[in-house]
């Protein structure tokens, strides 16, 4: 069972500022410094994350698996790109928060040329049918490897009065604070 909404709000307030004063001055806030310190600890445990990615490569051989972790966010993120022969070009992204024992999985639909890949839609629950199989597998692997619970969508959509990198109130949600401020941004 994931932490309660109250517990999650208490956690994210410790790592994201409630005003943008520090951003405007080009300084790190005390919250950002705590997030940086937590990342320094978590990055020492990367072997477990690399093992998950290796496991996904074996479990999803028709996908290209990559790491989409960015330490400006608060989660490890993996991405599984559909093969070029798939009828729809898409990716499934799995996120494991470093702030709380929760994860999320979502999808991206995109168009691709030789030079660029453009995300046309970010998909959350319910995912389109062609994303459900790989999303379910990624969710099970994160749950098994980390012991995390999936964050219910209704909690993920909860607005938070915090400044999370590129998001600011009233557009910031618990999803942004726990996982990624720009979910469509993947390598």
Report a brief summary of the structure:
With about 190 residues, the protein is an alpha+beta fold. It has helices at about 5-15, 20-25, 30-40, 45-60, 130-145, 155, 175-180; strands spanning about 65, 75-80, 90-95, 100-110, 115-125, 150.
What does this structure look like?
This protein has 187 residues and is an alpha+beta fold. It has one domain (5-178). It is 36% helix and 21% strand. The protein contains seven helices and six strands; from the N terminus they run H-H-H-H-E-E-E-E-E-H-E-H-H. Helix 4 runs antiparallel to helix 5. The chain is globular.
In total, the number of strands is 6
Structural class: alpha+beta
- Approximate shape: globular
Secondary-structure element series: HHHHEEEEEHEHH
Helix content: 25-40%
Keywords:
globular; about 190 residues; alpha+beta; six-stranded mixed beta sheet; 7 helices
Which helices and strands, and how do they pair?
Blueprint: H1 5-13, H2 21-25, H3 30-42, H4 46-59, E1 64-67, E2 75-81, E3 90-97, E4 102-112, E5 117-123, H5 129-146, E6 149-150, H6 153-156, H7 174-178
Parallel strand pairs: 4-6
Antiparallel strand pairs: 1-2, 2-3, 3-4, 4-5
Helix pairs in contact: 4-5
């Amino acid at each position: 069972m994931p932490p309660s909404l109250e517990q999650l709000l208490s956690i994210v307030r410790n790592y994201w500022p409630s005003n943008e004063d520090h951003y405007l001055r080009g300084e790190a806030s005390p919250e950002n410094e705590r997030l940086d310190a937590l990342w320094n600890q978590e990055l020492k445990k990367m072997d477990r994350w690399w093992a998950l990615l290796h496991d996904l490569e074996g479990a999803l051989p028709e996908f290209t698996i990559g790491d989409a972790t960015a330490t400006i966010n608060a989660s490890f993120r993996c991405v599984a790109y559909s093969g070029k022969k798939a009828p729809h070009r898409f990716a499934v992204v799995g996120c494991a928060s470093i702030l709380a024992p929760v994860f999320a999985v979502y999808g991206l639909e995109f168009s691709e040329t030789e030079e660029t890949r453009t995300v046309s839609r970010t998909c959350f629950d319910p995912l389109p049918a062609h994303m459900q199989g790989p999303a379910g597998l990624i969710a099970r692997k994160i749950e098994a490897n980390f012991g995390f619970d999936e964050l219910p969508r209704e909690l993920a959509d909860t607005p938070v009065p915090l400044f999370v990198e590129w998001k600011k109130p009233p557009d910031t949600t618990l999803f942004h604070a726990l996982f990624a401020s720009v979910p469509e941004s993947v390598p």
